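Hi everyone,

Forwarding the result from last night's run.
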Amino acid sequence: MMNELRNQIEEAYLQCHLEVSGNQPNNMDVRIVRNHIVIMRIDGDETEQSPISLPVYGEDGHPHASVSERDRLHILLKQKLSDITGFEVTSIQSDIFLDTGEKLDLIHFESDVESKFVTD
C-alpha cells in the first residue's frame, strides 16, 4: 500500500511540475514519514526554463498580482495530495542543497499519513 501511495504522489508531483514549469524532474525520491512527505529531486537535466513569476488575472482581465512558479506548484500540490491522502496539507516548504543542487519539498499534513497507509 505504501508503494502505491508513493507512486501516486510521484505521479501527482510530476503532473504539477509539468503544468507549472513545462518540464519534469528526471530523478526523484519520495519518502513518507509520519505526517510528512519528503520529495527530493535533481533537476540538472531539465532543458526548458519558464518565467520566475506569472501574473494573476482578476475577473476584469487585469493583472492583480504575480505568483512564483514555486507558489503555483504548491497550490496545485496541496489539492492533489489532499485528494490522494484524504488529509489536508497544512504547509509546504521548499529548499535546495547548495553542495549537491538537490531540491527538497517538505509537505506537512494535518494527520499521520504513514500510519493510515501502513499494512500489517
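Helices lie at 2-21, 69-85, 113-117.

Cheers,
N.
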